[in-house]
């Protein structure tokens, strides 16, 4: 993510943008934690908020060995928010976010 952009965004918006980059396939919880270098607690707190607002979907599955796995996928509402955020960032002269 663009470092100029990071200073403008809250943690939930940063996570939304990262999840949006993975499109309809989504991103696994582990990968999101690894890529952001955020704690699992921080990621879970903010992804829960994003899901409550209808911006992402949290899908729980089981791995081959039976452990739980969470996948985060952007929703249509989330895509619209990212689109609006892109417009705003372009207006203030920050590079497009996705």
Notes on the protein architecture:
- The chain has 98 residues and is α+β, with helices and mostly antiparallel strands.
- It has one domain (3-91): Winged helix-like DNA-binding domain superfamily/Winged helix DNA-binding domain (Arc Repressor Mutant, subunit A, Orthogonal Bundle), CATH 1.10.10.
- It has five helices and three strands; from the N terminus they run H-H-E-H-H-E-E-H.
- The chain has a three-stranded antiparallel sheet with strand order 1-3-2.
- Helix 2 crosses helix 4.
- It is globular.
- The model has no long low-confidence stretch (mean pLDDT 88).
Could you write a compact summary of the structure shown?
By secondary structure, the chain is of the alpha+beta class. It is built from 5 helices and 3 strands.
Task: List its salient traits.
Arc Repressor Mutant, subunit A; alpha+beta; 3-stranded antiparallel sheet
CATH hierarchy class name: Mainly Alpha
User: Spans of 5+ residues with little confidence (pLDDT < 50)?
Assistant: none
The number of distinct helices, counting runs of at least 4 residues, comes to: 5
* Outline: globular
CATH architecture: Orthogonal Bundle
CATH fold-level topology? Arc Repressor Mutant, subunit A
CATH homology group: Winged helix-like DNA-binding domain superfamily/Winged helix DNA-binding domain
Percent helix:
40-55%
What pattern of helices and strands is seen along the backbone?
A: HHEHHEEH
List the quaternary state of the chains.
single chain
Query: What is the structural class?
Result: alpha+beta
Q: What is the count of β-strands?
A: 3
């Amino acid at each position: 993510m663009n470092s100029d952009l990071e200073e403008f965004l809250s943690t939930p918006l940063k996570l939304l943008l990262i999840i949006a980059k993975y499109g309809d396939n989504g991103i696994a919880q582990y990968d999101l934690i690894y890529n952001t270098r955020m704690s699992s607690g921080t990621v879970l707190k903010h992804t829960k908020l994003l899901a409550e607002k209808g911006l992402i979907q949290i899908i729980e599955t089981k791995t081959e060995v039976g452990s739980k796995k969470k996948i985060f996928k952007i929703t249509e509402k989330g895509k619209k928010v990212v689109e609006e955020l892109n417009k705003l960032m372009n207006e203030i002269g920050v590079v497009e976010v996705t």
